């Protein structure tokens, strides 16, 4: 028999011995591996949930246009609590004139839409049906192109209707289904906070999870009409200026040109920072991933603690096994087994025990992920590397915490071990 054949046979025998010990002492083995099971299951579930949440978030942002560039009063504050910084609170509002300047003097930009949102309270009615607290926006006629949010039924309002601030509205799919479950909404008159508006279009179904109803719970009206309903929004916030470059690769150029125009209009010197924010899907996605990365780090710490506890359990059970099998070790040494053979035997058993716990944790994590997928709007995304990583980490825990018991067993004096009772 060759050296490699003997080595493989020895390892196989060690693994079979470990499985026999697990079968004979099921409860003790389960309690020993409990920490590893919880740790690996946490890793599997955490990775799946974070990846699923990231995927839905990215799809939601990109659904409004991967090249959308928004100029706004405030910076995005994902993951930041507390009051608004005074520097941002005191910034001047963006205005319709700012939007017109960008439209006129930024050659890289194809479409510009000034928008106001957040009118509260908002109640939308059609006869005895109503939509409570929908998202109402005042926009310009280029809103569909800038936000990749197009009309599925009817039409959007024209530049002339915007200029004359006609009382027309385009409603989201969910708003239409609530107010007009059996009727074509086009041409119908709805009431927004008691004022009549004629529905001229219904947006395509968009979906979303970033707010209570996503884009399907929105409705938009000409910005002039919005200012009549909520005049305070112009004073408090101004407007958002949504833009889209003429070419997808011109996003950075559009940001540069729009930023330069706003800086000049605000009289900022070269050494003064921008007193407005710039928002793009790519920037939001990057910031959001930083936030979820922090959550992932916290979950990894929790999983690491569970694995540490599981590793200590493995070491304790292996030390107990070494003590209980002292005479067996003495017999093997008397028959010619080397210290390396004893060490490999107990390390293999520790690794096998940990990997069994890791495999159980993987199954538990997959089951919990399936359960989350049934109740969550953003189902977990399971990747093969997370499963492999869970098993590898479990094996490494067994190797690390099984090393000391294995070396202790290998250093037994054969004569003393044979005398052990």
List keywords for this structure.
alpha+beta; elongated; single chain; 421 residues
Instruction: State the end-to-end distance.
Output: 36 Å
Note the main sheet.
Answer: 12 strands, mixed
Q: Unreliable runs, pLDDT <50, ≥5 residues?
A: none
Number of strands: 12
Helical content stands at 55-70%
| Total domain units | 3
Kindly describe this structure.
Strand 3 (123-126) and strand 4 (129-132) form a beta hairpin. This protein folds into 3 domains: 8-59 and 287-419, no CATH class; 69-113 and 243-278, no CATH class; 119-229, no CATH class. The chain contains 15 helices and 12 strands. By secondary structure, it is of the alpha+beta class. The longest helix has 44 residues, at 281-324.
Secondary-structure blueprint of this entry?
Blueprint: H1 3-24, H2 26-63, E1 69-72, H3 86-89, H4 96-105, E2 109-117, E3 123-126, E4 129-132, E5 135-139, H5 143-147, E6 151-154, H6 159-163, E7 168-171, H7 173-179, E8 189-192, E9 195-203, E10 218-222, H8 223-229, H9 232-236, E11 240-245, H10 251-266, E12 277-279, H11 281-324, H12 326-334, H13 339-375, H14 384-410, H15 414-419
Parallel strand pairs: 5-10, 7-9
Antiparallel strand pairs: 1-11, 1-12, 2-5, 2-11, 3-4, 3-8, 6-9, 7-10, 8-9
Helix pairs in contact: 1-2, 1-13, 2-11, 2-13, 2-14, 4-10, 11-13, 11-14, 13-14
Summarize the structure.
This protein is an alpha+beta fold. Helix content is 57%, strand content 14%.
């Amino acid at each position: 028999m060759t050296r490699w054949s003997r080595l493989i046979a020895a390892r196989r025998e060690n693994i079979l011995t470990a499985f026999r010990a697990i079968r004979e002492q099921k409860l003790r083995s389960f309690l020993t591996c409990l920490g590893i099971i919880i740790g690996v299951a946490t890793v599997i579930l955490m990775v799946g949930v974070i990846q699923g949440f990231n995927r839905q978030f990215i799809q939601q942002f990109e659904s409004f246009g991967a090249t959308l560039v928004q100029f706004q009063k405030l910076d995005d504050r994902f993951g930041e609590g507390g009051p608004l910084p005074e520097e941002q609170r005191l910034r001047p509002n963006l205005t319709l004139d700012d939007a017109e300047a960008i439209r006129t003097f930024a050659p890289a930009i194809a479409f510009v839409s000034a928008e106001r949102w957040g009118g509260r309270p908002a109640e939308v009615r059609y006869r005895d049906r109503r939509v409570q607290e929908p998202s109402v926006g005042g926009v310009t006629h280029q809103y569909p192109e800038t936000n990749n949010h197009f009309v599925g039924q009817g039409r959007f309002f024209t530049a002339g209707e915007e200029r004359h601030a006609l009382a027309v509205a385009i409603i989201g799919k969910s708003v239409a289904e609530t107010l007009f479950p059996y009727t074509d909404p086009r041409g119908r008159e709805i009431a927004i906070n008691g004022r009549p508006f004629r529905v001229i279009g219904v947006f395509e179904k968009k979906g979303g999870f970033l707010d209570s109803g996503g884009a399907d719970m929105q409705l938009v009206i000409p910005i002039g009409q919005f200012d009549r309903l909520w005049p305070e929004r112009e004073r408090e916030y101004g407007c958002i200026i949504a833009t889209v470059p003429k070419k997808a690769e011109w996003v950075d150029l559009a940001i540069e040109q729009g930023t330069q125009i706003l800086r000049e209009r605000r009289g900022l010197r070269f050494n003064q920072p921008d007193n407005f924010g710039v928002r793009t899907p790519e920037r939001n996605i990057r910031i959001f991933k930083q936030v979820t990365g922090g959550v992932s780090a916290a979950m990894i710490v929790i999983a690491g603690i569970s694995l540490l506890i599981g590793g200590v359990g493995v070491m304790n059970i292996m030390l107990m096994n070494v003590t209980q099998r002292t005479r067996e070790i003495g017999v093997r040494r008397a028959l010619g087994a080397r210290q390396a053979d004893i060490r490999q035997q107990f390390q293999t058993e520790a690794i096998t025990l940990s990997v069994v716990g890791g495999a159980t944790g993987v199954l538990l994590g997959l089951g919990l992920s399936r359960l989350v997928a049934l109740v969550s709007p953003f189902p977990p995304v399971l990747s093969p590397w997370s499963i492999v990583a869970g098993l590898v980490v479990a094996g490494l825990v067994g190797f690390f915490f099984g090393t000391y018991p294995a070396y202790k067993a290998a250093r037994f004096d054969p004569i003393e071990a044979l005398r052990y009772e």
